[in-house]
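Working notes for the structural subgroup meeting. M.R. asked for a predicted model of this chain before we commit to crystallization trials. I am recording the input and output together here so anyone reviewing the notebook later can reproduce the run.

Input as submitted:
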Amino acid sequence: MGNATISATIRPEEAAHFGKLAADWWDPKGSSAMLHRLNPVRLGFIRAAIDAHWPDDSRGVRPLAGKRVLDVGCGAGLLCEPLARLGGMVTGVDAAAENIAAAVAHALGGGLDIAYRHGDLAALGLGQFDLVCSMEVIEHVADKQAFVAALAACLAPGGLMVLSTPNRTAKSRLLMVEGAERLGLVPRGTHHWEDFVTPDELRDLLAGAGLTMGTPKGIAWSPLTGLTLSDDLALNYICGVTAG
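Returned structure, recorded in token form:
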């Protein structure tokens, strides 16, 4: 559900896998259907995190007005576009050129001014951002510490980072890998369970880059409610991160 963007960490087969899905990314009933269901849940967490982090700077429907926003492993822009509508000056980075092409085309069609860049995050020299997001990406990189360090370098002083990733549990193996992929809910080869990161592991990775992880919130699934924010971290989780 995302792509690595660091030359030292990128797995070419991962970029190729997601690049092949680019043309279908914006189809809510296509191969990225699960991302379309996940996106509103992630956005709900992000909006609450924005309001909590900048409580004196609320702008109603445009809380990111005047703020630089970076989405790393942006795919075809599913998260970039709503972040732009929240007022952010958004940059999206992805390892797959096909994804960036699809993102640019879709943003133009929607009249959104989003800067999309294909390449290695550490080599692009994009500067620092008030909000840095990376959703379902860290589980796809080989050198996770190097990836987190690159994210940290992009976070402006006083900024906010939001990360989400699957947890490495028996439940995630059963539902996300053996279940969802076999049932066709996500494309085969999307997930490699052994690369999933536990909350404790992510906390240590972030600490190694001088970052502090906030209390994670689970993203749970049930047949009745679908995907929702939850106290259950067993499947997937999302967290706010700050410097220091």
